[in-house]
């Protein structure tokens, strides 16, 4: 069972995406103890380990045992919960509510709701959690060029915009690099 004592608290290193502009009051009111009990239960149900909670405090606002000091004041109410689970690594970031404690409650309630999807046997492999898994990083060098502007800039900087010269210099049959050739080909397609 995952216990509150096993959760590591850390300052937020980087917020994923944009922060909520108009935070609101949470539609629920409960004690911190009730929130922690729910969170512990949901983490245990997922077989969570290596649980890390990030909150917007400085390192000096954390006690020796890693928990936030009583007088710690977060610079914003956003929280991030990350952990390893039986379905792989999961990460939840929430800043919808104006108190960080309420955002923790929101994560716990969302975890409970996702777990309840299993109640009727609709999912058996944790499909409801795939939206929170990290997406694989593409290893294709051509994927680095996504827009027409990127393609134009790439061709302009390397070959003065001369696509024919770029293709000839990078073609593998002429001793060029195949990764570079795929980038040039991708850039040519985007600039047509």
Summarize the structure in short.
The chain is α+β, with helices and mostly antiparallel strands and 192 residues long.
Main features:
13% strand; 4-stranded mixed beta sheet; 2 domains; 192 residues; alpha+beta
| Cα gyration radius (Å) | 24 Å
Instruction: Please report which band the strand proportion falls in: under 5%, 5-15%, 15-25%, 25-35%, 35-45% or over 45%.
Output: 5-15%
From the spread of the alpha carbons, the general shape counts as elongated
Largest sheet: number of strands, sense, barrel closure: 4 strands, mixed
* Strand arrangement across the biggest beta sheet: 1-2-3-4
Number of domains: 2
Number of helices: 5
Point out poorly predicted stretches.
none
Helix/strand-derived category reads: alpha+beta
Fraction in helix: 25-40%
- The chain-level mean pLDDT equals 85
Summarize the SSE layout with pairings:
Layout: E1 8-11, H1 32-45, E2 49-55, E3 79-85, E4 88-94, H2 100-116, H3 148-159, H4 163-170, H5 178-191
Parallel strand pairs: 1-2
Antiparallel strand pairs: 2-3, 3-4
Helix pairs in contact: 1-2, 3-5, 4-5
């Amino acid at each position: 069972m995952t216990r509150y004592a096993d959760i590591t608290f850390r300052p937020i290193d980087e917020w994923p995406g944009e922060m909520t502009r108009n935070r609101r009051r949470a539609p629920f009111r409960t004690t911190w103890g009730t929130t922690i009990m729910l969170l512990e239960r949901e983490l245990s149900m997922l077989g969570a380990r290596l649980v890390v909670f990030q909150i917007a405090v400085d390192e000096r606002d954390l006690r020796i045992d890693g928990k936030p000091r009583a007088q710690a004041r977060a610079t914003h109410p956003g929280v991030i919960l990350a952990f390893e689970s039986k379905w792989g690594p999961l990460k939840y970031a929430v800043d919808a509510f104006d108190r960080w404690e309420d955002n923790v409650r929101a994560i716990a309630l969302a975890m409970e709701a996702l777990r309840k999807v299993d109640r009727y046997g609709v999912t058996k492999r944790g499909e409801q959690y795939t939206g929170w898994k990290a997406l694989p990083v593409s290893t294709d060098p051509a994927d680095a060029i996504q827009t027409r502007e990127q393609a134009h800039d790439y061709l302009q900087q390397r070959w003065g915009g001369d696509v024919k010269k770029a293709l000839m210099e990078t073609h593998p049959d002429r001793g060029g690099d195949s990764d570079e050739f795929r980038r040039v080909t991708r850039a040519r397609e985007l600039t047509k």
